[in-house]
Specification:
single chain, alpha+beta, 5-stranded mixed β-sheet, 20 strands, globular
């Protein structure tokens, strides 16, 4: 499982989180292209390398032509839902906006649908939220863990006048989240940062055990006595040599009135949307009708998009949803040479010095077709090469 640890050294804001994702490897051009699907008035992402207390970081700015900052919650949701963003990103972005509307509604004693998001209704905020979610998709992040959040103090200017720091909306969004006080006279965690982290971090605390693959730094706008950055650690949620146990969502439904020829197309769509496993099981249903149980295992972040595919591509009217755990052996991919060419072999560690291995099917298939030999000949050669290795 690909894990992202967000180390909020100096708090978090939408642009800082976006900057750290770009620093990790998200291409700014690809992000701009995807965000153009919002069909918002002209805006442009600009990324620059800066230094914060000697630490190199990426600063991302959203340069906008439309400086309107006030929008009602339903207006923002309509913009997101009318976009061409991936369905999973749309659903998650709407969830963030709804949470912002709920907390602002409680603070101002108004229904969420009547709430004006003042500073948070601008194009830059919408781009920050959707850009963060797109960045997670592009990096194929499946688990987010966050450090406790540092809080500044003092006052800041808002549409309603001077208000204390942290802003009331920020504190409402951070209910149940570990925080710590600082003496820094500035807003460290913005409402946007609080909404994103409290919604999508599965846990808060120290960095989890993982095989580290990349580190990124996102910069804030101001210079502080500490580095004004958020740091992201990207890795595989696996300590070397240990089994991986992680959570998945299992979606299942029974179908007895679909043509069998449609299931192949359905499976292709589900795998393209990020399903881990798709299983079709023959079952007998009510009235002794033969049918098919469809089971799809996926990460929590893929659930909404995959549900939409199941509802759209099948005749079902309901989906069962279960939380399950997956216990996996540690494994690695090694490449071996055969008389037919190189083949990747997946090697799993059984413990106690024992292993089991399997050649990658697609590699063997390609070599068998290229040399005009039976598939089993290539697979046997690959296994022999691994054993000799």
């Amino acid at each position: 499982m690909r894990t992202l640890y967000i180390d909020c050294i100096a708090g978090a804001s939408g642009d800082m989180l976006l900057g750290a994702l770009v620093d990790l490897g998200v291409e700014i051009e690809a992000l701009q292209t995807a965000l153009d699907g919002l069909h918002l008035p002209g805006f442009k992402l600009a990324a620059a390398q800066v230094s914060k207390n000697g630490i190199g970081a990426t600063k991302v700015n959203v340069i906008v032509e439309d400086h309107k900052t006030e929008r009602h919650v339903p207006e923002i949701i309509a913009i997101i839902e009318a976009s061409t963003l991936p369905e999973s990103v749309k659903a998650q972005a709407v969830k963030v906006v709804e949470r912002l509307g709920e907390v602002e509604g409680r603070i101002h004693q108004a229904p969420p649908e009547e709430v004006h998001l003042h500073e948070l209704g601008g194009v830059d905020t919408i781009v920050d939220v959707c850009g963060f979610l797109l960045g997670l998709e592009m990096l194929e992040v499946e688990k987010v863990v966050c450090s406790p959040l540092p809080l500044g103090r003092g006052f800041t200017q808002s549409a309603h006048g001077r208000i204390p720091v942290p802003a009331p909306a920020t504190l409402a969004l951070l209910s149940g989240v570990p925080v710590r006080g600082t003496e820094i006279e500035m807003e460290l965690v913005t409402p946007t940062g609080a909404a994103l982290l409290s919604t999508f971090a599965q846990s808060f605390g120290a960095a989890p055990d993982m095989k580290l693959t990349a580190v990124g730094y996102g910069a804030g706008s101001r210079d502080l006595e500490i580095p004004n950055v958020v740091r992201m650690l990207l890795g595989d949620d696996q300590a070397p040599g240990e089994r991986m146990v992680f959570k998945l969502t299992l979606l299942e439904t029974n179908i007895d009135d679909m043509s069998p020829e449609t299931y192949g197309y359905l499976m292709d769509r589900l795998y393209a949307a990020g399903a881990r496993d798709v299983t079709l099981i023959p079952v007998y249903m009510k009235k002794n009708r033969p049918g098919t149980m469809l089971q799809v295992a996926c990460s929590a972040r893929r659930v909404e998009e995959i549900k939409q595919i199941i509802f759209a591509e099948t005749s079902t009217l309901g989906i069962r949803q279960l939380s399950v755990t997956r216990d996996c052996l540690p494994r690695e991919i090694v490449t071996v040479g055969t008389v037919y060419g190189e083949v990747r072999v997946k090697v799993a560690d059984l413990g106690g010095g024992k292993h089991k291995a399997a050649p990658e099917f697609e590699d063997c298939k390609a070599l068998a077709e290229a040399h005009g030999v039976p598939l089993r000949a290539v697979m046997t050669a690959a296994m022999r090469a691994w054993e000799e290795r």
